[in-house]
Amino acid sequence: MTRKTGMEERQVAQLMESFVGVLANTMNSDKVVAVQGFGNFEKKEKSERKIYNPSTKTFKVIPSKHVVNFKMSPVLKEKINNPL
């Protein structure tokens, strides 16, 4: 990023930290974050589930948790599938 932007490493680190902070705060408000030309980030809840361990023959409950769902934009998809 520093080579592409000409910014110092410290500035790029601050920019990325700010981006991640805004992303997390917005998703915590149950909103979708759309980055034009990149994609959409959305917080979803993964429900509680049981898993079976065949070696111990026991079940374990995995609690529900939040995960981030990312949907790539058509622009990014095109750039990935047809690189220059």
Shape assignment: elongated
Return the string of H and E elements: HHEEEEEH
Question: How is the quaternary structure best described?
Answer: single chain
Strand content bin: 25-35%
What's the CATH H-level homologous superfamily? IHF-like DNA-binding proteins
| CATH topology heading | HU Protein, Chain A
Largest sheet: 3 strands, antiparallel
Q: In order across it, which strands form the biggest sheet?
A: 1-2-5
Model regions low in confidence, pLDDT < 50 over at least 5 residues: none
Q: What value does the average pLDDT take?
A: 93
Name the CATH class: Few Secondary Structures
Question: Which class of secondary structure composition applies to the elements?
Answer: alpha+beta
- Total beta-strand segments: 5
Helix count from the secondary structure assignment: 3
Helix share, percent = 25-40%
Per CATH, which architecture? Irregular
**Head-to-tail CA distance between termini:** 19 Å
> Which radius of gyration do the C-alpha atoms yield?
19 Å
| Overall structural domain count | 1
